[in-house]
Amino acid sequence: MTAVTAGVPEAGERAPGRWVGALTLANLGVWAGWFGPLQVLLALQAEDLNPGHKATTLAWTTGIGAVFSLVANPVFGAISDRTTSRHGMRAPWVLLGVLGGVAGLAVLAVAPSVPVMIAGWCLVQVALNASYAALTAAVPDQVPWRQRGVVGGWLGVAQIGGVLAGTALGTVAGGLAAGYLACAAFMLVAVVPFLLARRDARLAERPPFAWKAFLAGFWIDPRRHPDFGWAWLTRFLMQLSNAIVMMYLLYYLQDAVHYGDGAETGVLILTALNAVTLLASVVVAGAWSDRIGRRLPFVVWSGYVMTAATALLAVWQTWPGAIVAALVLGVGFGVFTSADFALMTDVLPAAADRGKDLGVINIAASLPQVIAPAIAAPIVAGVGGYATLYVVAALFALAGTVLVRRIRSVP
To answer: What is the pLDDT of residues 259-316, one digit of tens each?
Structure first.
């Protein structure tokens, strides 16, 4: 365990493979806890509890939960920056967050009404954002610049693996309650190796605290840190595009593709195909980015690929079209995930505020969960349908791809 008296030192030696593996598995568990509900279970539960207004119910549930996520991620990141536990700065919040996530999934498993369903999902969002903020901050704590691309690649593996695992558990567990509890159990087991690794930065003394300074720290002036601002905006646009695609995928298969009964199985198939091409590209792209010392070209070209794949869903609304789009999107998102994560760690303003600053960046992934339903619901309800919806999503991805070129300090 690394002991420091102030701030967090720049990592110099390469992080050992065992620790990277444990970090990857812990992230995989958190993503499974998130996306089992998001991909399948919440949509099915909304349909079960309020069948006449399933899309609206799903939008309210995910939107309200995302508001809690917006606050939780940077706040818990900032708290972990100040944690002086003998077990480290990040590990205690990883554990507490997972336990809270298990509790939230248990509430969802027995929810008898829409309000209880929303409350359970909000608890899951708060708790898992605490874990995710701490796990994300552990990377710049422990991983040197020249290794962050490949580690970002493995975290991309964790993300798609978690999405696939959560979708599979939600689909084959045998009902809503069983699906939620299966995700909870998987998440709990997955975090154990990271906690046992006992490799965590530790603060010997807590910095002075003042509410005004604490709250003011969440505003990072883009005029003083322009590259941080552009990085935040471009990630937001790419994640907004992805949120629109993923949030309505089940209904897209039901209502536009006319997949038939068991559309959740179709979601699982598309997720698995997406995982194949993502896994084929994510670690390779991260390692390549580390080797040549460049990030921007990978982010730019992956953005163009993701734009094309999203547009394909708009113009080719058939099952074969969905398969091709899933495969192409996997390639683009794999490259984007590894290179963009490394780029984000490169533009952080201060080492001692990594948890908080990465939490602010993670808002760019959470905020789209709030905005996407507000954009998507009226379009799906009648202003153009799914074709217009996915054209809009493609335009968001294209805008993020173009604007990322404004970042100057990262090659």
So the answer is: 877 787 888 888 889 888 988 888 888 888 888 888 888 999 999 999 999 999 999 9
Cβ density class 383-403: b for 16+ within 10 Å, e for less? eebbeebbbbbbebbbbbbeb
| Block residue for tokens 């008296």 | 5
What residues contact 407, with CB distance under 8 A and at least 6 apart? 227, 230, 231, 234, 296, 343, 347
Decide: 227 and 386 in contact? Cβ < 8 Å: no
Give residues with Cβ within 8 angstroms of 312, minimum separation 6. Answer: 321, 324, 325, 328
Q: Is residue 2 part of a domain?
A: no
Which of the 8 DSSP states describes residue 201? E
Q: How many domains, the chain?
A: 1
Tell me, yes or no, whether 300 lies in a domain. yes
Q: Which two tokens stand for residue 170?
A: 């939600």
Q: CA angle at residue 237 from 358 to 329, to 5 degrees?
A: 100
Q: What's the CATH code of the domain at 327?
A: 1.20.1250.20
Q: Are 196 and 1 in contact (CB under 8 A)?
A: no
Its domain, for residue 156, covers: 12-197+222-406
CA atoms within 13 A on the CB side of 254: 15
Helices (H), ranges, 191-317: 192-197, 211-216, 226-247, 249-255, 263-292, 296-315
Is residue 143 classed as helix, strand or coil in its secondary structure?
coil
What's this model's pTM, rounded to 2 decimal places? 0.78
Residue labelled with tokens 């998130």: 34
6 found inside a domain: no
Cα–Cα distances in angstroms (integers) from residue 333 to residues 188, 203, 314, in the given order: 27, 36, 18
Within a domain: 216: no
User: From the first residue on, what is the mean pLDDT of each consecutive set of 10 residues in the chain (411 residues)?
Assistant: 40 78 95 88 90 84 86 89 83 95 96 94 95 90 83 84 87 88 96 89 70 71 83 91 83 85 82 86 86 87 94 92 93 86 79 78 79 82 82 94 85 67
Which residue, 68, 35, 61, 36, is CA-closest to 47?
A: 61
Q: What is the DSSP letter of 222?
A: T
The Cα-based distances of 66 to 11, 191, 231, 261, 362 in angstroms read 32, 23, 21, 29, 12
